[in-house]
Write a structure and sequence with these properties.
Length: 511
């Protein structure tokens, strides 16, 4: 006799059908017996031989306890088992005896499924995990092991992310234990708060037993930006800059760098969206021109998570001007007649739009008559004279302002010259002694004097005199008429001999 296959799950319920309808209207079931497997004793009895089937006496065996109930309202009628036990599996036979008709048997094979236990998730150290786990770092690997015990038949064990199957490669490590290890080689940003579920299933009747974990993830910053963007800065002027970074969890740590030096005293804040903001106030200097200003953002919990934004600083400043002698090392060594070269060195950003030269505070231009020639950043004094003695400066201008150089004093050393506004005529009687004073100007002042008398009849250098530096006094006594005439005085120093002597006239004294 063919059997009908029914499937039930432990702790569930099952209805085993049995057709008790009579072939004829004037007949009805008199005795209904349920047998299991090869048992000779019925496990459930409904006896209507002495009355109506609706009021028949029902009895069940001890193994069914109060779990069995025969429902005759539905068609076909059925024997309901609730709850189902594992031992209920087997072959059931429903025998129906009618008052008149012949006996009818229905054979049913009941397969009982035993669900597995609840899966258990552990980490690589064997610690049990459930709910929110971590945090772990973006870029790290992750290994999760899921095990489940029990189940008949043995369950499949799979890993899922939402509705996506991740891993269905499970193994049986013992007769009733199944294991599946999920390996993620590199965690990505999208794994943040991902729900990973391990499911154990051995039937399509009940919901699979499962265990889930939610990934808490530390992630790297994805963007860093400086505001305002690259622009020239003025030296010695305070500037405020803002650097923002987003995408990091926890919020990124922001640092400022100028070259290899970290800048301090920045103000940092974090908003509710996890965006980090750092405000830097600093005063750029001229020496910062060309250095790199960098804003770095990193998640301190993740190595190699630094990203940065920055640029090469362009610092604007007024011209820095320095004046120096180009051909002579010491300004005090310039001698009358030398050519003097003055070089104006300029450091400027942006570059200058004008340059000028000053002598004793007054602007000077190229003047070939006076020996002044200016070419770009060089001033040439040709055959320097005593009139060129004084202070020289140069100055330059750009959009940031004016720069004035240091002063260079040109001290022109020259041969002796006669001092102006000194007495040049002396009246003296014969046999009277006169003191003739001769004053010179010279640099250096160490002067060697010479005197000479000259008249129409005689010339003599035999004159008695005394001298000190640039001053000399000759003592002269005329004795005859031929001793009246002119006296010449001149000097010599390290620069040279006096070109034009000082002339003094000796006249006879009048009445």
């Amino acid at each position: 006799m063919a059997s009908i296959l029914y499937t039930a799950v432990v702790r569930g319920k099952v209805a085993l059908p049995c057709d008790i309808s009579s072939p004829s209207a004037d007949d009805s079931a008199a005795l209904i017996l349920w047998y299991k497997d090869d048992s000779a004793q019925p496990i459930y009895t409904l006896d209507a031989r002495r009355g109506n089937v609706d009021h028949a006496h029902q009895a069940s065996s001890p193994e069914l306890e109060s779990r069995a109930y025969f429902n005759m309202i539905n068609r076909p009628a059925f024997l309901q088992l609730d709850p189902v036990k594992e031992d209920d599996a087997g072959e059931y036979r429903c025998r129906v005896d009618f008052h008149k008709a012949r006996t009818v048997n229905t054979v049913i094979t009941l397969k009982v499924i035993v669900p597995s236990g609840e899966p258990v998730i552990t980490d690589s150290q064997g610690q049990k995990l459930k709910g929110l786990i971590g945090p772990v770092n973006e870029g790290d690997s992750l290994e999760l092991t899921c095990q489940v015990a029990g189940g008949k038949p043995r369950p499949s064990l799979t890993w899922w992310r939402e509705y996506t199957l991740l891993d269905d490669d499970y193994i049986f490590i013992s007769e009733d234990v199944v294991k599946n290890t999920l390996k993620i080689t590199e965690l990505k940003r999208h794994d943040l708060l991902a729900i990973l579920t391990c499911q154990a299933s051995n039937n399509n009747i009940t919901v699979p037993s499962s265990c889930a974990v939610t990934l808490d993830l530390n992630v790297k910053p994805v963007e860093v930006k400086i505001h305002p963007y690259q622009r020239p800065l003025s030296a010695d002027s305070e500037v405020n800059m803002t650097c923002t970074s987003n995408g990091s969890r926890p919020a990124a740590k922001i640092t400022w760098w100028k070259g290899k030096k970290q800048l301090q005293h920045a103000r940092e804040s974090i908003n509710r969206a996890g965006v980090s903001t750092s405000m830097l106030t600093f005063v750029p200097s001229v020496d910062d021109n060309g250095k790199f200003l960098t804003c770095r953002a990193e998640n301190p919990l993740i190595s190699n998570s630094v990203i940065e934004d920055g640029w090469k600083l362009q610092i604007y400043f007024p011209p820095q001007v320095a004046l120096h002698l180009k051909n002579l090392p010491i300004a005090g060594e310039i001698q009358e007649g030398n050519d003097v070269y003055l070089e104006c060195s300029i450091r400027s950003n942006p570059w200058i739009h004008s340059i000028s030269w000053q002598f004793e505070g007054m602007d000077i231009k190229t003047n070939l008559v006076s020996g002044i020639m200016i070419t770009n950043q060089t001033l040439v004094i040709q055959s320097v004279q005593l009139s060129h003695k004084g202070h020289f400066t140069c100055s330059a201008s750009n959009d940031e302002g004016l720069g004035v150089s240091n002063k260079i004093y040109i001290n022109v050393k020259y041969a002796p010259q006669c001092q102006t506004e000194q007495k040049t005529t002396f009246g003296v009687a014969k046999q009277e002694t006169v003191r003739v004073s001769c004053s010179l100007v010279a640099d250096p002042a160490d002067v060697t004097f010479s005197w000479m008398f000259n008249s129409s009849t005689k010339q003599s250098g035999d004159i008695r005199y005394s001298s000190n530096k640039t001053h000399s006094v000759a003592i002269y006594t005329p004795k005859t008429d031929n001793d009246y005439g002119t006296m010449l005085c001149w000097g010599i120093n390290d620069v040279g001999i006096q070109r034009k002597p000082c002339v003094f006239t000796i006249l006879p004294a009048g009445v």
